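User: Can you help me understand a structure? I only have the sequence.
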Amino acid sequence: MTNRAILCFAAMLCTSVAGQAFAEMVDDFSGDLSEYTKAVVLTNSTSNESTSLEMTSFAINDDGQLEFNSHVTNGKAYQTVLLRDDYSLGVGDSLRIEIRYFDDIASGLTPISGVGIAIAATKNQTFKVRENIIMLELNGYGASPFTGRVIGTSFQGTTNQGQKIANVIVEDVTGLFLERVAVDTYDVGYSTSVGDLVVGTYINNSPGLGSAIGLYGDCRATAVPLARLDNLQIVPEPCLVSMLVACGLMLAAGRRRYL
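Assistant: Let's start by predicting it. Here is the structure, written out as tokens:
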């Protein structure tokens, strides 16, 4: 193979890989929810599993958004996940969701509900068990001047690693993200029109964590919808994309010199 052919092939390869490294759309909510498995991982009620599952429902509206509905009337907590395992979260990737609408349900009062994203070791979760999972939510509880909070919760095995909390103005939050910055290190945070803000970091070495991804809700009061969500995505770290694009451009420039 000539030098010109080698450079041409390498430039095309870098450009192709860079294209694949941009945001991967997991779900734009234009289809159905058949890839997801629903589970209630915690409730402080006496409800059985089937009744607990009925406390939340999901529907795709005419605008291609997922409506996350809470039907809780007893003031109890129903922490619910909707997970899929046809995508996974690798090192350098962040799982992101856009929040188009959120009902804070009388901000500052209880019971307060939240909605967001989650990663786990498996999409098949056990009723009333939080294990090998990280959950992140926008929650409507807030003390003036704030109207809500962003809350991260992590379980290594069944060990609760505590919460990471930031006070926020609900209307300013445009989305949430959970980034795998190393094999066992995860940042949780939220997005605004200004950019991303990290709320906290977890060191969680649960086997297989990140093999399942999806949505999460901590529902404690009726709200239909509680939130409208859009564009669940996996986004690689920006430096990887920049590096691949630069590689392609340099090789393409070298190719032109050989022509």
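Now, to help you interpret it: The radius of gyration is 21 Å. The longest strand covers residues 223-236. Let me know which part you'd like to focus on.
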